[in-house]
Design brief:
The structure is a single chain. This protein has about 625 residues and is of the alpha+beta class. It has four domains: about 220 residues, P-loop containing nucleotide triphosphate hydrolases (Rossmann fold, 3-Layer(aba) Sandwich); about 90 residues, Translation factors (Elongation Factor Tu (Ef-tu), domain 3); about 110 residues, Elongation Factor Tu (Ef-tu), domain 3, CATH 2.40.30; about 180 residues, P-loop containing nucleotide triphosphate hydrolases (Rossmann fold, 3-Layer(aba) Sandwich), CATH 3.40.50.300. The chain has 19 helices and 29 strands. Strands 7, 8, 9, 11, 12, 13, 15 and 16 form an eight-stranded antiparallel β-sheet that branches. α15 packs parallel to α16. The termini are far apart.
Length: about 625
């Protein structure tokens, strides 16, 4: 078996290279439930398109005898399943990308995993695809994962779909079986917006209806898969859309050159065009379009270039250069669909990082409006999103961003969510629209500021954030500290966890979601009080690092002082002043920190108090002394 070749190679190599360079490129993915034959199908496409070299074929034959699943015959899935765990289990775990070509077109195919736990990898593969092949095992029919992947294909805007009913050889090439599966899928597909798809009966292992029509299905008169792939329209309308380029890098090699580098996401740009930098809204004119090989008369969607401007306006990484006459919107609150990837649930109110294009900004997700049952498409009430769940939520960002709705521009409408502590990608989403109030709410300027308020009180505002287990002594020590500061003439206010729950947070319980919201509200109040020039003391368990970090970032550098009241669980439980540990041990209290809910101890607190070696009075003295030195 030789690699794919054209007769032009021998006749006119330059003509061949020119033809190959100008072939259209189709990116597509294979998806569906586990063991539906996705990797086998791609292996067969590579084999039939002669994209396997002789040494690769020899290795494939050896691997097939050693770890294959076809009784010694060629196992085409091994061409794609490269991880040891994939070969051991006979499944796909990671996304595998493969390139192949025919005389008519070039292809990049993403083999995505079928297991539910790897749904995030399927979304990764689908995010850049023009078309999707959804495989179904003819013996099993439409399964939950088939529906989930189809729903995601629709969400991600893929409009060219093949329903590949695979393993028809194991269903005796029954036309009735094929038509029943297609009918069931059509009913579901119509509900999620997949109004047009091509159904093909096939056997990826045997090669039926892959490159040529099979004699085993005389009742099928549609195209084989390879012909469909060669003829499927490639979405190339990005150039017809308004110009957008997220700025990836400010290119400043010397004092005489300042350019803005990035990949054009949509549209066309030429020297002389008026552009707007967003979110600032400043306008200028394109002076040059610079590349490594020289200046260009224009740049189009997909090209990576450096643009220089006629005017010295402020543009930074994460900003967007856009056509001045049709710019994207700018907002900081949105409705979006989110696909959750992480084992730890999405908690409303918890701060995450949102990355859209080249911009990264802090984001908070509100309680989901609903989540979607992918089997019935029913909208279900939800307070959080668990692994692989899909929901519609409102987002609030720490700063405004330039965006287009995902349906109009994937690059400026698609985002990922990142855990701020671990840096894991925990979710992906599609922006629908900006919330109207984000356009109408603005900061109101005031004449009296924090500095003048603090100067009037003769002190530096601080937020002393006491954290530790229940029974550690937070409230006792915080109260003693406030008494000392008050006696010294300082202006203070103590926000205590129990007291706040009588008023401001009386509507909150003790679920993880409510704990996050409890700390968010207290953080906002503490920030306002510090803005008034006060020294604020808070005594809350505040068990999660993410929320304590969120409050720290609400305040200027050095204003947040984390005070860790370090008391071992056994000691706190022995004290049990309120009898809460006893109730938790009996199961009368759920989500109790230290028993059935975790406490994440501070890693680098400003002050640590070990209550097993120091009295509350001495602890208060030490904290006040620290403040006097700060």
């Amino acid at each position: 078996m030789a690699a794919h070749k054209s007769e032009l190679i021998a006749q006119d190599i330059e003509a061949y290279l020119h033809q190959h360079q100008h072939k259209s490129l189709l990116r597509f993915l294979t998806c569906g439930s586990v063991d539906d034959g996705k990797s086998t199908l791609i292996g067969r496409l590579l084999y039939d398109s002669k994209m396997i070299f002789e040494d690769q074929l020899a290795a494939l034959e050896a691997d097939s005898r050693k770890v294959g699943t076809q009784g010694g015959d060629i196992d085409f899935a091994l061409l794609v399943d490269g991880l040891a765990a994939e070969r051991e289990q006979g499944i796909t775990i990671d996304v595998a990308y493969r390139f192949f070509s025919t005389d008519r077109r070039k292809f990049i195919v993403a083999d995505t995993p079928g297991h539910e736990q790897y749904t995030r990898n399927m979304v990764t593969g689908a995010s850049t695809a023009d078309a999707a092949i959804i495989l179904i095992d003819a013996r099993k029919g439409v399964l939950t994962q088939t529906r989930r992947h189809s729903y995601l294909v629709s969400l991600l805007g893929i409009r060219h779909v093949v329903l590949a009913v695979n393993k028809m050889d194991l269903a005796d090439w029954s036309q009735e079986v094929f038509e029943a599966i297609v009918g069931e899928y059509r009913d579901f597909a119509g509900q999620i917006g997949i109004t047009d798809f091509t159904a093909i009966p096939m056997s990826a292992l045997k090669g039926d209806n892959i490159t040529d029509r099979s004699e085993r299905s005389p009742w099928y008169d549609g195209p084989p898969l390879m012909r469909w792939l060669e003829e499927a329209p490639v979405e190339d309308d990005l150039q017809g859309k308004p110009f957008r380029m997220p700025v990836q890098w400010v290119n400043r090699p010397d004092l005489d050159f300042r350019g803005f580098s990035g990949q054009v996401a949509s549209g066309v740009v030429r020297p002389g065009d008026k552009v707007k930098a967003l979110p600032s809204g400043r306008e200028s004119t394109v002076a040059r379009i610079v590349t490594f090989t020289g200046d260009l008369p224009q740049a189009v969607a997909g090209q990576s270039v450096t643009i220089t401007l006629e005017d010295e306006i402020d543009v930074s990484r994460g900003d967007v250069l856009a056509a001045a006459g049709s710019p994207p919107e700018v907002a900081d609150q949105f409705e979006a669909t989110i696909v959750w990837f992480d084992d730890e649930a999405l908690l409303p109110g918890r701060p995450y990082l949102l990355k859209l294009g080249t911009r990264t900004v802090q984001a908070q997700v509100a309680e989901p409006k609903h989540k979607v049952n992918v089997n019935t498409l029913e909208k279900l009430a939800a307070t959080r999103l668990e692994l692989n769940e899909i929901g519609v939520c409102n987002l609030s960002l720490a700063a405004p961003i330039a965006f287009d709705p995902y349906a109009e521009n994937k690059d400026l409408g698609g985002f990922i969510l990142i855990d701020r502590i671990t840096n894991r990608t925990v979710g992906a989403g599609m922006l629908h629209f900006a919330l109207r109030r984000s356009h109408n709410i603005h900061w109101q300027a005031t004449d009296v500021g924090k500095a003048s308020r603090a100067a009037q009180k003769g002190q530096t505002p601080k937020v002393l954030w006491f954290t530790g287990l229940s029974g550690a002594g937070k409230s006792t020590i915080a109260n003693l500290v406030e008494k000392r500061l008050h006696a010294d003439g300082r202006h203070t206010y103590l926000l205590d966890g129990d007291n706040v729950r009588h008023g401001l947070n009386r509507d909150l319980g003790f679920t993880e979601e409510d704990r996050v919201e409890n700390i968010r509200r207290v953080g906002e109040v503490a920030r306002l009080m510090a803005d008034a020039g006060l020294i604020v003391l808070t005594a809350f368990i505040s068990p999660f690092r993410a929320e304590r970090r969120m409050v720290r970032e609400m305040l200027p550098e050095g204003e947040f002082v984390e005070v860790f009241i370090d008391t071992p669980l056994a000691e706190a439980e022995k004290r049990d002043v309120k009898g809460l540990y006893k109730k938790a041990r009996k199961g009368e209290l759920t989500n109790f920190t230290g028993i059935d809910s975790p406490y994440e101890a501070p890693q680098t607190p400003e002050i640590t108090i070990d209550t097993t070696t120091i009295t509350a009075e001495d602890a208060a003295e030490a904290i006040v002394a620290w403040l006097d030195r700060a």
